[in-house]
């Protein structure tokens, strides 16, 4: 089995990973409803994750 050739990507064309999302970005469901149960669940989970990340960042600065 032949492996595909690897062509390096020029440095100017390498996509970067965003370090933060814009403050005005709101999650929207594909169904278009603002009261979607799945959307509400995802928002709740993300809020919890954000709090955990903030706590971890504060604890990491203590060291």
TrEMBL record:
It comes from the Eukaryota. Residues 1-20 are annotated as: Disordered. This is Uncharacterized protein.
């Amino acid at each position: 089995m032949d492996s595909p050739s690897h062509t390096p990507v020029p440095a100017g064309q390498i996509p970067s990973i965003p370090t933060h999302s814009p403050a005005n970005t709101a999650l929207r469901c594909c169904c278009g409803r603002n009261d979607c149960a799945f959307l509400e669940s995802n928002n709740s989970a993300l809020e919890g994750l954000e709090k955990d990340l903030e706590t971890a960042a504060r604890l990491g600065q203590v060291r």
